[in-house]
Amino acid sequence: MLTILSQNFSLVNEWINELRNVQVQHDRMRFRRNMERIGEIAAFEISKGLEVRDVEIQTPLDTIKSREIAVQPVITTILRAGVPLFEGILNYLDRADCGFVAAYRKHDANDYFSIKQDYLTCPSIEGRPLIVADPMLATGASLIEAIKDLLTNGNPTQLHIVAAIASRQGVETVQNAYPDAHIWVGAIDENLTSKGYITPGLGDAGDLSYGEKLQR
Ligand SMILES: O=c1cc[nH]c(=O)[nH]1
Q1: Which Pfam families has this protein been placed in (predicted)?
Q2: What is the pLDDT of residues 129-185, one digit of tens each?
Q3: Which of 45, 80, 196, 205 is most deeply packed, by most CB within 10 A?
C-alpha cells in the first residue's frame, strides 16, 4: 500500500517546498526540522493502524475506559541522512524501541556507486510493527538491503516505510521486494539521475542536514 502525504494540500506541501528550495534548504536547522515534521505527520498516520488494547485511566475525579497502543513499534533508520525523519517519528511514537543501520554509497573512479552496509544494531522486531525511515527513496537498493538485515531480528506484524521524497522507480522496486509493506511518502518524483539522485528531488539530504561529506 502507498500513501502520498501531500496528495491533498496540507502543511506537508509547504515543508517539502522548503526542503527542495535552494533559497531555503541551506538553513540546516529548518531543513532538519522540516524532515522531522514530515516524520511526525507520518507517525500520526501510522498510529491509526496500530493494534490497540483497552485500558482504564484513573483521572483525579473518576475512571474512564480508553485505548492505547498494544505493541510498541520498533523505529529504524539508515545513518546518517535518515536521522531527522527518524527523530520526527520518535517524537510522536515516543515509547518505541529503535534500531540503526549504517550504509553509504562507495563511489568508483567514474562516480558510480555501490551500497556498503557495515553496522546494524536493533532490538527484537518479533511480533512488533517495524517502521523504517529513509528520507530519499531513490533506487530502493540501500533500503531493501537494510530491511533484509533488519528482518534477521524477527518477523514484524507490520512493515512501514517512511520517505520524504521517493522516485516512482524506487517505490515500485520496494513494493516488488516487500509487497506487504505500507509505504508513506511526502511526495513522488518521476525521475532518477544516472547517479541515482531523485530529480527534481532536493539534492543530498545527509549533506543538507549535517554538512557536505568527503567522498570515499
Ligand atoms: O536524491 C537523493 C537520493 C539519495 N539520497 C539523497 O540524499 N538524495
Answers
A1: UPRTase
A2: 999 999 999 999 999 999 999 999 999 999 999 999 999 999 999 999 999 999 999
A3: 205
Rounded distance, CA 43 to CA 88, Å? 8
Quick one: which of 136, 132, 127 has its CA closest to 146?
Answer: 132
Q: What is the ipTM of this complex?
A: 0.95
Burial class (CB in 10 A: 0-12, 13-18, 19+), 133: buried
How far is residue 103's CA from residue 74's CA, in Å, rounded to a whole number?
Answer: 19
Question: What is the best residue among 83, 169, 191, 204 to mutate for testing ligand 1's pocket, by most ligand atoms within 8 Å of CB?
Answer: 204
Nearest protein Cα to ligand 1, atom 3? 197
Residues 167 and 138: beta-carbon distance below 8 Å: yes
Query: What's the number of CA atoms in the CB half-sphere (13 Å) around residue 114?
Result: 5
Q: Which domains, from first to last, does the chain contain? A: 2-210 (3.40.50.2020)
Pocket lined around ligand 1, Cβ cut-off 6 Å: 81, 136, 138, 197-198, 201, 204-206
How far lies 84's CA from each of 41, 107, 187, 188, in Å? 13, 25, 17, 19
